[in-house]
Amino acid sequence: MRAPTIRDVAERAGVSKSLVSLVLRGSDQVRPEKRDAVLRAARELGYRPNAAARSLSEQRTRTVGVLLNDLRNPWFVDLLDGLNSLLHAGGLRMLLADARLNRRTGQDPADPLLDLRVDGLVVVGTLPDPAALGQVAERIPVVLAGSREPAPPGVDVVAGDDERGARLVAEHLIGLGHRRIAHIAGYGAVGELRRRSFEATMRRHGLAHEALVEPSDMTEEGGYRTTVRLLSRPDRPTAVFAVNDIAAIGVLSAAEELGLRVPRDLSVVGYDNTSIARLRHVWLTTVDNSSHELGRRAARCLLERFEGAGGAGRVQLAAPTLEIRGSTAPVP
Amino acid sequence: MRAPTIRDVAERAGVSKSLVSLVLRGSDQVRPEKRDAVLRAARELGYRPNAAARSLSEQRTRTVGVLLNDLRNPWFVDLLDGLNSLLHAGGLRMLLADARLNRRTGQDPADPLLDLRVDGLVVVGTLPDPAALGQVAERIPVVLAGSREPAPPGVDVVAGDDERGARLVAEHLIGLGHRRIAHIAGYGAVGELRRRSFEATMRRHGLAHEALVEPSDMTEEGGYRTTVRLLSRPDRPTAVFAVNDIAAIGVLSAAEELGLRVPRDLSVVGYDNTSIARLRHVWLTTVDNSSHELGRRAARCLLERFEGAGGAGRVQLAAPTLEIRGSTAPVP
DNA sequence: GCCCCTCTTTGGACCGTTCCAGAACCTGTC
DNA sequence: GACAGGTTCTGGAACGGTCCAAAGAGGGGC
Question: Which of A91, A115, B130, B228 has the fewest CB neighbours in a 10 Å radius?
Answer without folding.
Answer: A91
